Amino acid sequence: GTTLGAAAAEQGRYFGTAVAANKLSDATYVGILNREFNMVTPENEMKWDATEPSQGQFTYTNADRIVAHAQANGMRVRGHALAWHQQQPGWAQNLSGSALRQAMVNHITQVATHYKGKIYAWDVVNEAFDDGSGGRRDSNLQRTGNDWIEVAFRTARAADPGAKLCYNDYNTDNWNWAKTQGVYNLVKDFKARGVPIDCVGLQSHFNSGSPYPSNYRTTLQNFAALGVDVQITELDIEGSGSAQATTYANVVKDCLAVSRCTGITVWGIRDSDSWRASGTPLLFDGNGNKKAAYTAALDALNAG
Ligand code: G3I
Q: Is the link from the previous residue into 81 a cis peptide, with omega within 30 of 0?
């Protein structure tokens, strides 16, 4: 394949990117998007604050633009994210207990129903585990009761039975980290009890504090062995030049080595599109030129 998407497709995988609706009028951006990628994740537009700014009032304009663009160009969509402790609208931040739980359930039902049949996979719950301990992260959602995650998954399944339902988190790449074990045990428990879950998203934001680990492939394999797909959902890699390129290639090789690793999404197109204010963590430079990291990722896909 001569593009990331085509090369991934030849391996039975997808290659995606986060997309911001306000960049769909940028010709360079859209040119790369349409040429290279066959999966998109709305970077912010499907989050709770964006889709339900006032309780019970849903606004889908920006997210719909991304979905329409994807459908018109033969790309699939990963939905992100139905329940998360961040980017909640102010009214939800001020709720607690059963009122918050009910609001969460209604939010998931409404958004998943609006996009029913259009989403390949939903990040149903995002970042619910604590960085250090491997236990649950304290949040207003967690304080509604430990069962909030399974309630979220059951609600999403009821609303859109055709979408794959994922648990998505960061710092879950290194098999030896407590947080990775915490998420692993959640998935194992859900599979044992029949709670609907189809996939685990490893965000894989790699930097000096959380570098690409040598046991990454082991982590992917161990999650897949629980009977779920694994997806690399928000990949970016701090650094530049050949070191960065080698790490991108290693991530691609690790995914291709695990049959249930169904695809890779990078968290933005050009370095200038990255959520990281400084740094050059992506595959295209600020002018939209292919970096060494791009070539390494493409070559690794084609070698698979
Ligand atoms: O749209 C407003 C704009 O109107 C306002 O003038 C400006 C002033 O700050 O803010 C703009 O909103 C920002 C938004 O991105 C759009 O650019 C928010 O402040 C900013 O907080 C928000 O950041 C996003 C971040 O999630 C929020 O948590 C990033 O774009 C987005 O890349 C990032 O993505 C997360 C994933 O969802 C979950 N995993 C981690 C990942 C990286 O942090």
A: yes
Instruction: Given the residues 43, 45, 52, 234, select the one marked as catalytic.
Output: 234
Q: Would residue 234 show up in a list of annotated catalytic residues for this protein?
A: yes
Centre of ligand 1 from the C-alpha of residue 42, in Å: 11
Let me know: does 229 contact 202? Beta carbons within 8 Å.
Answer: no
> Closest by alpha carbon to 19, among 104, 80, 98, 99?
80
pLDDT digits (tens, 9 = 90+) for 213-245: 999 999 999 999 999 999 999 999 999 999 999
Pocket test for ligand 1, best of 47, 204, 275 (most atoms within 8 A of CB): 275
Task: Please indicate, yes or no, whether the overall pTM of this predicted structure exceeds 0.95.
Answer: yes
What DSSP element (H or E) covers 84?
strand 76-84
Residues with CB under 6 A from ligand 1: 43-44, 86-87, 126, 170, 203, 234, 275
Residue 125 neighbours by CB under 8 Å, 6+ apart: 81, 82, 83, 84, 149, 152, 153, 167, 168
